From TrEMBL:
<dbReference type="GO" id="GO:0005975">
    <property type="term" value="P:carbohydrate metabolic process"/>
</dbReference>
<dbReference type="InterPro" id="IPR011330">
    <property type="entry name" value="Glyco_hydro/deAcase_b/a-brl"/>
</dbReference>
<protein>
    <recommendedName>
        <fullName>NodB homology domain-containing protein</fullName>
    </recommendedName>
</protein>
Amino acid sequence: MANIKVLLWFDVEDYITPEAQDAWSGALQVLKEKGIPGIFKIVGEKARLTSAQQRQDILNGLSGHEIGYHSDLHSQHPVSTEYLEHLGFREGAMEFETRERAGLEDVQRITRSPVVCYGQAGYSWAPQTFAALRKWGVPVYLDDHDQIMLEGRPFWYGGLLNFTSLTATIKLSFKEGGMERAIAEFDRYCEQSAHESVGFISIYCHECDFVCEGFWDAVNFARGRQTPREEWRPAPLKPDGEMEHWLAKLGEFIDYTLSKGQIEYITAERALSLERSQPGTLTESEVRELAATVDRELGFRELGGKSYSASELHSLFAGLLLGRELTPQLAYGPEHEAVSEARGEALRVADIKKALEAAEEPHVLGFRQLPDCYEAAGRKVSVLDLTCTMARIIRLGLRDDDTVALVEGILETERYAADNDLWGPKWRIFPENFRAPNTVRMSKLQTWTLKPALFA
């Protein structure tokens, strides 16, 4: 069986340039001729336009391909990071659902297909989107974004399987020399993945790339500009005949990749079916083995071919102390990073158990979220310190009447979240000096949900 899996995805987004529709239709025809599945992440407004134009060539051509969602309006302001930046995690998740659900439903209704994956418009990533996507039943996040990176490999974050910023990512360029560079990159990634049981290569472009010299949104929405609909202008076009030329080049590129052997083009749904990290119920000895790996530093762990996020470890440690079923439970990270009042103090194990039993965990769109802190013997204890202290209790075999020094924990997974909050230069649609410090802060807190994805 082919060990190198290729995810070929298209961000379908230009609802202003008429010629972009013909390019989309042409790309679908190329994939039909080559007999491979594509992943089409569609903007809600683009789907509505396609329906209004009665483009049956496109809608029928999507049969056999996977449908993804790419936001409702893409680059019209405020984009998702702009409207979520000043909201908390719970409030932001609800706001994203309110603003973006209609677009998702339109994409599903018009394509007559479920949405399997999502990717943000441009650079407008935000951690609150994950809870809404999970509520909608969208299991995969597919894009090219560098806010959360796990050594260039797929990972779980926010309850979704993430294919973002993979080392083996190729952005197709339909300019002179672009296909030659893509072939060289493909060869290099195939060589790197040759000895892996499963390796992934992520390849993407936009439908408008085949026919446009520039981007439709740069013309109308760059640097925070919100051009009224009646003044929208299409993107500049390539010369006549260029679209057909580059569509043919896409076909040639696909032919080349298939000639390598051990290559299989797959959908995000198929990739999800290959993932094997999700654990079932554990034994007491397995939880003790996991607790033995945690001292001050808390992060994801692997055991017996399964992976566990920090929030899943929290649930397992609490379950063992309270005599509950040892099935890991995902919970979103807390709203804020709290500081324990009891630092430097020793607490009775019985008081820590009482704190766990008495705590009312918050929820985000119906999903569990870790509280900022617990109250043990009248003192506030952060969820981070409490989790590391639970690991110490288990590791030392302490009983209810024993005391334990509170561990001052470190969430080591935060290092997988980028620190730079100046996002304006990263995407031409943002105002040039746009900053997202709250988004960056929350992205770190949500690394409680981060863990490697494992494939077979």
